[in-house]
Amino acid sequence: MGCPQIALRAGLAALLALLAFGVTPALAQEPGPEVCKACHADKVASFFASKHGVRTDSRTPISNGGCVVCHANAAEHVKAGGGKGAGGIVNPGRSNHAISAEAKNAICLACHQGGQRIHWDRSAHANNEVACTNCHMIHTAHDDVRDKLTQSDVCFSCHRDKRAGFNLPYRHPIKEGKVACSDCHNAHGSAGEHMLVRDSVNDTCYQCHMEMRGPFIRNHEPVQEDCTLCHNPHGTTNPNLLKVRVPFLCQSCHQPTSHHGTIPGAAPVNGGNPAIAQAVIMARGCLNCHTEIHGSNNPTDNSGRAFRH
Amino acid sequence: MKAMRRKVVLPLAGALLAASGVAIAADDDADSGEPASSIAAGVGSVSKDNQHFGEYSGLKDKGGYGLLDVYINKRYDDTGTWVTLTGRNLGLDSRDLRFENERQGNWGYFIDFSETPRNDPFTVSTRLTGIGTNSEKILGSATPQQYELGTKRKAWTLGFDKSLTGLLPGLSVRMRFRDEDKDGTRLFGEGTFTNLAFLVDPISYNTKQAEVTFNYTAAKLQLSGGYYGTWFTNKNLALSIQNNPAAYPTQPFALPPGNQSNGLNLGGGYNFSDSLRGTFKASYSRATQNDAFVAATATPTLPASLNAVVDTTEIQGGLNWRATSKLTVRADYRYYNHDDKTPVYTYFPAQAASATSTNVGTNEPLSYRKEKSTLEANYRLPMGFRLTGGADYESIWRNNPPLVSVDFRDKTYETTWRAELRRSMSDSLIGAIGLLQSSRRGSSWNTQALAQVNGVATTGVIAPLNLIDRDRDTIRLTLTWTPIDPLSLNFRADNSRDSYFAPPFGNAYGVGPQKGKGNDYSLDAGYAFNDRVSGSMFFQRNDNGYRSSDCTVNAAPAQNQCANSNASPVWASNLSSASNTWGLGLRAKVTEKFGVNFDFSDTKVTDVLGTSLISPATSTGVTALPDIHTKVMTFKLTGSYDLDQQSAVRAFWVYNRYRSDDWTWSYWNYTATGASSDGGTTVTQNPNQTVNFVGVQYVYRFH
């Protein structure tokens, strides 16, 4: 047993002795971190290392009472001699299931209700009883969910279907830490659809794919309405993150006149010239000809709505 | 639901493919109470040129790489000022560098630089020249040359935050500005039926975004509002093709035009009482596009640019009411209007005059409006259970073009009913089961589909996937169980079924979308053997399916009937994509100085492109399409040895194996002979790629 542990035990023994004799001068008010440190040295140290432990910021817990700001009933906890749940100590951590997510979140929202969290009550996370501490690490200067490289680990712990998607051949570079879930979604809730950071799916996609916005002299209706009518941004087995492989995707909307209803064929071209049956499914499929599929601003495109140039 | 997240990084973490493979932030030092910093420097080596492993990581070439990661996090306690420098993969094309300076509670600013490569996983063999420029030449070289396409994004982001409590307590301002260049090349092409040529899209984009937001936060009222502007410019507005055979579309190609938007928004929340809260948001933006056309219009009197204008408006309002200690009710309404006000001109008079045209020869502004209402209640039951019931109603209106080329209805509406039983307040067993049932219906179909200008009317055949009547049933199940303290199990299942209902178009076979499905099952386990050793493993199966039918219709006027002939039969497609992934993770502190991390994942994907004959039975026009199989296996072994309190040596080995038999490129070449030939360009991918990435780093930790 090292020196710090001996000192801690001695200190706690002294405290308990005082209590035994009915002397509780240090406990007339809520205990400060120096008392909590006797048993929770690592937590107190990591608290001081975090933004919550900055004394020069008048908003922080350390400036407003210390540990007790988040962990209520600390005085009763110390009086009861410590231990898990002793004295009714409030622990809003993720491993404590004795109190509801709503009760845990009320502690955080007392300070963090503004800005990006205004629409928290509206969010799927709030309505599915996700607590702030399910995602956020509080006793640290580096919170995994706020780091692009490790954020997806946190999200995937619940969103398993999205974990599968990002393991497929065509995907956003989430695994490489170049795109984060929070680039598209506000996990704290938003006024938009699907907790997106912008008001619509398209406005969110345009942050990085603004070349698709147009409008164009020839618009493609599903492109202007909703990118996810054709694309799955979480990953697919089809090139360009399409939900369904071409030509089957196109054939789900377009009338089978002309060549639209062509049955795809898989005979290798083998150095010859492709037939339509191969051209609709091989290489870029329908986009071999309809290359400007998101819309064309070409005034000489007299071929109808073909999006060919 | 409790997130079963451990400090053990799951095998699919981004760290697996990151160059150094480890999230660089140091653990806080529990003894000092100060934020920790670290610098990791070393070298790595990739065993082979590759296409898959290096797609986004910047590690596509065989050879050595410098590895440098920096995380310096310094706090000055007397002023509460933070200085943070974060650098990742500084020796690679996928580098990130960020500097932040903040006086907590007062001001803060940052500057961020990020590079994102995207290396196309193909090798092109082509006689096309001028690749990467806005002037390309078909058959420009005498013999095929090999190229690898790809893009690189370089983005600068500046941010500034300032507390304005001196003006008004609770007031602050937030500014963000982002400038990104995207340059490179991408697969492109041109064609008319069986004349198909390979081209390259020359990408030289710039995107700018600027945002200024004022936030006000008080006990009852919170407001957030400001300005958001975006600008897109393209240095290559047109692509010219030399030696362009006559069969191909006329020159030039129009590439994406520049566009911009400016908008204002205001949102907020108000705590009427401890039990009643309201939220709202209102926003307006105007997007414009007015780049000059890349070619002359049909007549000189037509405008030389589109002068496109789109106004977008959003309004949202909601209430959250804790009616009793057990009952909470939530109501929400959202309105979103996309109004395309682009002036309409007859840019295509030839189409207007044509008897067989599917459009009236004008540009077609597309507008739509979405409205969604939600009502939900949840009630807390004994033993930690909670019951939720809710309903959503969403409607979408779309403007009706004068002539359409697909079947069309101007309104769809979808009602969703939801019910869920959840248990979240238990030490050993938490979970939820939810049921959702959605029905989408709509207004009458536009029976003038495929109508022809000179009044020969006909009806369509296929109801588009996003408009057709649909029923969707979903069941979701999650369970987290801790049978004994060191073991945690999590099971999740999602099952969804879509049924599509063809409208009464009079087609004998009711072709179009039929069915859809989506399933996802996962089992995760974590086990803490002791304070030094912990492990995790998971298995996940994800499969999606889609069934539809199609045909080739008769010539006009009976275009609503399938030909149903041997040459043009009625056929079905039955597509599915199934992936199985399993993974392992292990964290072990072997001795006080030596630790080992191991991560493994294996994914197998099978795409079934099933096609089958419906009618007539004598047709041989439907042939089977081969399945497509993709396999990816990755493991990573990292060992770390502490030289002393502050420094360590870390060695890692990443093994990545990729297999694919995707025949849609390997069976293909572009038109090889004749007047429309481009020389028979091929685009191929190495079907078997195995890469070893090894490296060693020296890590220095400090405060």
Tell me the number of strands of chain A.
0
Average pLDDT of chain B, to the nearest integer?
91
Write down how many β-strands of chain B occur, each being a DSSP E stretch of 2 or more residues. Answer: 32
Q: Report the order of strands and helices of chain A.
A: HHHHHHHHHHHHH
Shape of chain B: globular
The Rg value of chain A, from CA coordinates, equals: 29 Å
Helix/strand structural class of chain B: mainly beta
Helix content of chain B: under 10%
Compute the average pLDDT of chain A.
87
Helix content of chain A: 25-40%
End-to-end Cα distance of chain B: 37 Å
Taking the sheet with the most strands of chain A, its summary is:
none
Content of β-strand of chain B:
over 45%
Radius of gyration of chain B: 30 Å
Anisotropy-based shape of chain A: elongated
For the biggest sheet of chain B, the summary is: 26 strands, antiparallel, barrel
Question: Number of helix segments of chain A?
Answer: 13
Please indicate the count of domains of chain A: 3
Largest interface: A-B, 150 and 209 residues
By secondary-structure content and strand pairing, the structural class of chain A works out as mainly alpha
| Oligomeric organization of the protein chains | heterodimer
Descriptive overview:
The complex is a heterodimer of chains A (309) and B (703). Chain A folds into 3 domains: 3-88, no CATH class; 111-197, no CATH class; 199-309, no CATH class. Chain A contains 13 helices and no strands. Chain A has helices at residues 3-20, 33-36, 41-49, 74-79, 101-112, 124-127, 132-135, 148-156, 160-165, 201-205, 221-225, 248-251, 276-279. Chain B is mainly β and 703 residues long. Chain B has 2 helices and 32 strands. Chain B has a 26-stranded antiparallel barrel. Chain B has a 3-stranded antiparallel β-sheet with strand order 8-6-31, with no helix packed on it. In chain B, strands 7-13-14 form a 3-stranded mixed β-sheet, with no helix packed on it. In chain B, a hairpin with a 4-residue loop joins strand 2 (63-76) and strand 3. The longest helix of chain B has 5 residues, at 349-353.
